[in-house]
Amino acid sequence: MHERTVDQILGESWESYAQEEIASAGEHYPGRDRVVELFGGPDPFEEVVAPFGVRWPGLAAAPAGPWADAEQVAARVLADLAEYDADAGAWGSYLLDRAYRSADLPLLAEERGLEGAGCRPYGMDEMCVVLRSWEERFGTRVVGLGNDRVIVSVAAPVRTTGEAEAIAAEHFAFSSDNITQGHDETLRAYAANQIVGRQVWSFWWD
Predict the structure, then answer these.
(1) SS3 per residue for 89-132
(2) Residue 195: helix, strand or coil by DSSP?
(3) 74: closest CA among 206, 204, 205, 201?
(4) What is the torsional sign of CA 7, 25, 163, 94?
(5) How far apart are the first and last CA of the chain?
(6) Along the chain (206 residues), what's the average pLDDT of each consecutive run of 10 residues?
């Protein structure tokens, strides 16, 4: 059996989510009117993922070099997160003792008792495919891991809106909760606030 590519994994996730959202738009359920009255109705899928649409836009290009050293960036990011966690207690047991590559994840997950998918919609093999692609294109390293969270350092952060929005599409496909249940409720806002110039990406699943 052939390993699925990152484009296939993320593309299937994107288009499956789009189909579900479009099919459920305007769907009525007990208590819906009260929920809408209190919190407002959900934004249409096309507004959330603009400038893209229902069709998967494809993978983002790797930024032009030269890049910072990925291992050095990962060590600094991990130290910064640990320092922040000491004050705010935001990351807890997710932070790792050092940075890891995607190939290390199966053994690392076993050591941490995370063999199952947990809240993640992917098996470990697919997770490794996605993270390996980000390693190659953006110099990422895994610095945090749990059943419902993955945190990576980024050695090649992008600087432009267009680059960030292309990456945000991948993040949405990988973990739509980051946007639909996060502080940034649209892909454009997420790209501007969480990707441009950022050397850490954090993903979670509800």
Answers:
(1) CCCHHHEEEEEECHHHHHHHHHHCCCCCCCCCCCCHHHHHHHHH
(2) helix
(3) 201
(4) negative
(5) 30
(6) 88 93 61 44 78 96 92 96 73 87 92 69 89 97 92 96 97 93 91 97 91
What is the DSSP secondary structure assignment for residue 88, as one 8-state letter? H
> What number of other Cβ atoms are within 10 A of residue 122's Cβ?
17
- CA 78 – CA 159 distance, rounded (Å): 22
C-alpha to C-alpha distance for 146 and 151, rounded to whole angstroms: 9
Question: Could you tell me the sign of the dihedral formed by the alpha carbons of 124, 126, 128, 134, in that order?
Answer: negative
Cβ of 44: how many Cβ atoms within 10 Å?
13
DSSP states along 37-49: HHH-PPPPHHHHH
Cα–Cα nearest to 48, from 158, 202, 190, 164: 190
Query: pTM for this one?
Result: 0.88
Q: How many CB atoms lie within 10 A of CB 89?
A: 8
Q: Are 73 and 155 in contact (CB under 8 A)?
A: yes
